[in-house]
Structures are given as C-alpha cells and as structure tokens.
Specification:
alpha+beta; Beta-galactosidase, Chain A, domain 5; ten-stranded antiparallel sheet; five-stranded antiparallel sheet; 17 helices
C-alpha cells in the first residue's frame, strides 16, 4: 500500500502545481470483495442471488472440442493460472519484458486517478471510448494479476461497471462493440474470482445484450478485411469469457465467427500475404486475428480451429510486413495509411509459429531504441504480447533479411494487392535503397486511385512519398458522407489525397482514373530479367471515357489500354529508374502528365534535370525520352514543373512543405513513346 500512498500524494501535488488532464477524484481505500460463493453477493457484498447459475447442460458439439472449454477454469483467455505464475518470473528475465511490464504499471498508476468514461459520440461512433475502456481494463487487470495490489482491481471493476451501465455499445458501428466487448471480456476472465458476483453478472448480460444479440445481419460477417477480424475476434474472446453461463450461446457465437472469419476474413491477404488495406489496417486486423488465435490455442491446442493453416497468404504475411519499412524509417503507406513507423506485435506471433526470429528484424530496431511502447501499433492490446511471443527470440541479434526483392502477383477479385518491394542491402542505413510500388484495383476498401504509384528511399531519406489518408471525419462531412463509397462517381475521388492527382502516377488529359481501374504485375518480367531488382506493372482502365480511350497499350501488352510502367535499379543498384510506355490511339492526341510527390526542396535545373534537396542530401532526377532507343528525339520536349501538393478544395489537407514534381507531354495520334526518370546522386 505504501506505493499507492506515495502515488496519491504525488498526483495531488502535481495537480496542485500544474493541473491534470483529467480531474483526480479521491480514491477510497479498496477492499477485496468476498466472493467465496459464485452465486451470491452484490455491489456492496451482500447476498442477493443476483448471478445466473452456471450452465450444467451437456457439452455442445461443434468444430472444436468444447469439453476442453468445460475443463478450463478462469482465467483462460491468453493466460491460465499457471501462465500467470510463470510470467511473474519470466517477465524479469529480459530488459525488454521488464520495460513493457513497468510501462503498463506506470500507466495503471495514472488510470486509478481518472474519472469514469462517458458515452460520447465522435465522428459517428464511440470507438475512442471503447478503446480507452479496452486499454485501461486490460492493463489494470494485468497489473492486479501481476502484483496483487487491490487498487488495480478496484479501478478495473469500476470501469467494467462504468461501461456496462451505458445504454448500449453503439452497434450501428460494430467496431465500437467489438473493442468494448473485448475489454470487458478480458477483464471478466482475468479478474473473475475477485470480482463481485453482481459485476460478473452485469458484464455477462451486457455482452449478450449489447454484442451477441446485435450480430445478426451485421456487415462484418461478410467483410473481407479488418472489420471481419476485429469484430469476430471480439465475439470469440467474449464467448470464451462467459461460456459457463450459457454454453450453447457461447458456442453459437464461436462457430458463427469462425465460419465468417475463414470464409471472408482471410481474403485480405491474397495468396502472397500483401494485405489489401495496406500497412495501417494490417496492424489493426492482424492484431485482432492473432490475439483471437492465441486465445483459442491456449484452450483448444495449437491451430485446433484451423485458422493458421487455413490461408497460405496469412502464413506469408509477416514476410510482406517485414519488407514494408524503408531505411528512412517510414512505411510504404499505400491505401489509407500513415507513413510513420510503428512496431507490429503480431510479428512476434509469426516468429514463434514459424520459428523464424529474423521476422523480428524491424521490431528489434525499436527495442534497441527503447521506443517499443511509444511507437507500437494497436498498443491497447499490449497485454497480449507475452502470450504470443517466444521469450528465446528476445535476446540476440536477428539475422538480417536476405531477400532483396519481394513481389506479389495478387490483385484480382479484391484479394491481396500486387506490389513490388525492394531493399538493396537491408542495412537500413544510407547505403540501403528502398522502392515500393503498388497496383491492384482502386475500388477495394481503403484504396486510392494510385495504380502504379511508388515510394523511394535513398541515402536515409524518403524522396518520393505517399501523402497518406485524409482526416476521416472532417473529409467525410465535407463530401456529404461519401468517403466510403468506392463507385465511379463517388465524391471520394474529389479528395486530393485519394485521387490520382495527389499520387506518383501518370494522368491522361487531366482526368481522374476510373475507380474500376487496375494495375497488375507482369510475371514474365522477372523471368526475362533474372537477378534484376525491379518489376513491371501494366495498367487497365485509367480513363473515364469508356471504350473511347486516348491511350493504347504498349505494343507488347495489347490487353491493356493505358501506360505500362517498369521500375528498376541500374548501375549496380546505385541508381533507380522509372519508365512509362504510352501509345496514343488513332485520332487522339492525349496530354500526359507524370507526377511525383516529395517533401524535398525542388529546383528545376534545366529542360531535363530536377534537383531535390532534403536532410543534408541531394538527389537528381534526369528525364529522358525514348531511353530504350539510345538517343534523344530532338523534336520532343518535356515541360517540367513543380507546384505545392495542395488540392483544389478548401477542405483538402494543406500538405504544408510538400511539393509535386511533374512533366507534361503531348502524343501525336498512334505515336508510341517512353519516358524514363532516373534518380541518381549525379545528373545524367
């Protein structure tokens, strides 16, 4: 108790000197509840018979052996009683785990002084409230299990009652329900024997009323990405927590979620592991996926539910994620993602499952810098980390990845995303160059009009960038609620950060790309260029003009009606070159604009050279027409230009300090041309 007396004094002292972000109420001295009888007690510890008796019916049948759940007392989600005892010793075995543990306890010391959560809609959801509840309840429950100090228990129980007294968990946006239910369920399970019976009863009843009874007809059941994983994960964890009170209902929810997850949730990974919603949403969906799987494996055995073996793409996805970070310490942020580097703790799960600690190469860079908690994606589920890791993988240097070129041929049927990812030496230093190019369909969830767009790192700097996602709530309001409409005429495509005008692509006649356009990898390029670091994308459907196209295919790819792009490293991987092939259709004289977004200071040197300066480094862009012919066509001239990366709408993000480098040229009818842009330390 001495720790909490000092804590309370410190909180009051700081509050009196500088104020606090949240009011700090008096914290009463907690009293451990008397829970000797599971069917007695209320919030004041009296005997009222408020708790539903345990279900003594026969074990339900299903795809899992539910007799194992019958034999699994609380706690059983992620950690059982023996796991908690072992964890108290294992947590002290490495500096990294001690750091995670201490961070959680420090957080919980703050949570004790926080006021109750309020049901507050923001942007049409209470997701922020649900996430606060999930974070605080699970961390407080962890802190109590690890220390036995009752203030953690008291605050966790208060929070469980707090959110269970809400009028609902906002099922109109089921992510709100899923994250709230996950927090309540984990708190219920981990603290089960020390919670008041009335608290247990309230939590179980609200999981039924606010979560299970609201799943019928919900779109997440057929969603092909993160919603499926998060919502089904929340329902399975909740069912595991309240099984003994209604076995049939719990099994019904588990079986429903398993069937939905297997049929729809895994399609996001395609066959190669490239997540169709990109870097950000991989962290969200895959975190819930592996936490759900760890919870099931703890009770039913390794891959008893068949989730890990169900999808080859899922098994490969950790390798894809490993290749998504450049030496600039920025991610390849295609789709609705941010470029900030975040630790991805599902990588620990894959490293353990595949016995491959090299998958932790990037994670350990953050560990070395002691920034893992501060820069960890989906931090609110950090308490699950120890359940998914192999502690033997923590110490020592992981092997440096050896695969320089990673590519995925996916892209059709809204599964996976075709892309090329390249590291020239994997040192993650100034000598390591990184190229990422994305294709796929533009009407997949969270996609942009960005087929063939690329990012490029060299000398420790990101030169070609992706602007990332817009601010959701403000943008959605500005375009009349059409942000999640991926149709051809949706106002989503008026948003500068989402359409082709704000990406590193080719635009024809100033028109938006068609939302049904697609950019696919040409696998034969790799066969024809063995050992070369690069790739080829062929585009289809870039114009809105139906069958009346302005640009035909490059003659080697007649199945496509838009440019063909090749990106490749040249000169012993010192320089990188992007080449676009275009052929004008009969009777058409299209104007072609090539754009690249950059955070650099840009100077147009002459008609064929642009200088980029950033972070004390300089990079030159050399523009060459018909590079493959070995000569320049003097009759053709590019118009080079640079301008701020700012959209035409008052509500578009300002993108302060970001420039666009562009060229324009006009093709004569039936003219074929290619233009190469060479990125080098020197002018060509």
């Amino acid at each position: 108790m001495k720790r909490f007396i000092l804590l309370a004094f410190s909180i009051l002292l700081v509050a009196s000197l500088c104020g606090c972000q949240e009011p700090v109420p008096d914290v009463p001295t907690p009293v451990k509840p008397n829970t000797g009888n599971n069917n007695s007690g209320n919030q004041n510890g009296g005997t009222t018979g408020v708790e539903t008796p345990d279900d003594t019916s026969a074990t339900p049948t299903g795809s899992l052996d539910y007799s194992k759940l019958d034999a699994a007392p609380h706690p059983r989600i992620l950690y059982n009683e023996n796991d908690w005892k072992e964890l108290k010793t294992k947590i002290l075995s490495t500096e990294f785990t001690k750091y995670i543990h201490q961070t959680i306890l420090e957080n919980c010391d703050k949570y004790i002084g926080y006021t109750d959560l309020k049901y507050t809609l923001s942007g049409g959801s209470i997701l922020g409230v649900s996430r606060n509840a999930l974070t605080r309840i699970t961390q407080l429950a962890y802190a109590y299990r690890m220390t036995g100090q009752y203030p953690y228990l008291a605050k966790a129980e208060r929070l469980i009652n707090n959110v269970c007294e809400f009028s609902d968990w906002h099922h109109d946006h089921f992510l709100d329900v899923a994250e709230m239910a996950t927090g309540v369920a984990i708190g219920l399970d981990w603290l089960y024997n020390d919670l008041k019976p009335a608290t247990r009863e309230l939590a179980r009843r609200k999981i039924e009323d606010y979560a299970f009874s609201r799943t019928k007809g919900q779109s997440f059941l057929k969603n092909k990405a993160n919603w499926n994983q998060v919502c089904n994960g929340g329902m399975i964890i909740s069912a595991l927590a309240m099984y003994e009170k209604d076995k049939a209902r719990a099994v019904e929810m588990i079986e429903q979620s398993l069937a939905s997850n297997k049929q729809y949730g895994y399609t996001a990974y395609g066959d190669s592991g490239a997540y169709n919603e990109g870097y950000l949403y991989w962290g969200y969906g895959t975190t819930y996926q592996v936490v759900m799987m760890c919870a099931l494996e703890k009770i039913f055995g390794d891959d008893a539910a068949g989730l890990y073996s169900h999808s080859k793409g899922f098994q490969k996805t950790a390798e894809w994620m490993l290749h998504m970070l450049g030496p600039s310490r920025k991610a390849f942020n295609y789709a609705d993602a941010d470029e900030e580097w975040m630790g991805k703790f599902p990588m620990w799960y894959f490293a353990r499952k595949q016995n491959d600690p090299s998958l932790l190469y990037v994670e350990k860079m953050l560990i070395k810098e002691r920034k893992y908690c501060e820069e960890l994606d989906e931090y609110r589920l950090i308490v699950a980390l120890f359940a998914m890791m192999n502690f033997d993988h923590i110490e020592g240097e992981p092997a440096k990845p050896t695969k320089q070129l990673w590519w995925a041929p996916d892209g059709d049927n809204n599964t996976g995303v075709p892309q090329v990812l390249i590291h020239t030496d994997w040192t993650m230093s100034e000598s390591d160059k990184f190229l990422g190019i994305v294709g796929g369909r533009s009407n997949r969830t969270h996609a942009h009009l960005d087929g063939g767009s690329f990012v490029y790192d060299a000398y420790g700097v990101r030169w070609a960038m992706d602007l990332g996602r817009p601010t959701y709530s403000d943008t959605n309001t500005a375009i009349g609620g059409q942000l999640w409409d991926y149709g051809k005429n949706s106002k989503r495509w008026d948003v500068f950060r989402l359409n082709n005008f704000g990406h590193n692509v080719v635009t024809i006649n100033g028109t938006k790309h068609n939302s049904t356009s697609k950019a696919f990898i040409s696998p034969t390029w790799f066969d024809e260029n063995p050992g070369k670091l690069g790739g080829q994308f062929s585009m289809y459907g870039y114009n809105f003009n139906g069958s009346d196209h302005d640009v035909a295919a490059h003659n080697n790819f007649p199945q496509y009606d838009s440019p063909t792009r090749v990106a490749e490293f040249i000169n012993n991987n010192e320089d990188m070159m992007i080449t676009d092939w275009m052929t004008a259709c009969p009777g058409k004289s299209p104007v072609v604009r090539w754009t690249m977004v950059t955070p650099s200071t840009v100077t147009i040197v002459d008609d064929t050279h642009v200088k980029l300066e950033q972070g004390g480094q300089t990079l030159y862009m050399t523009f060459v027409i018909n590079h493959d012919k070995g000569t320049l066509d003097p009759s053709k001239k590019l118009t080079l230009m640079t301008y701020p990366a700012k959209g035409p709408n008052s509500w578009d993000e300002p993108n302060t300090g970001i420039e666009i480098v562009a060229y324009e040229l006009q093709l004569a009818p039936e003219e074929t041309m290619n233009v190469s842009v060479i990125f080098s330390k020197n002018m060509y």
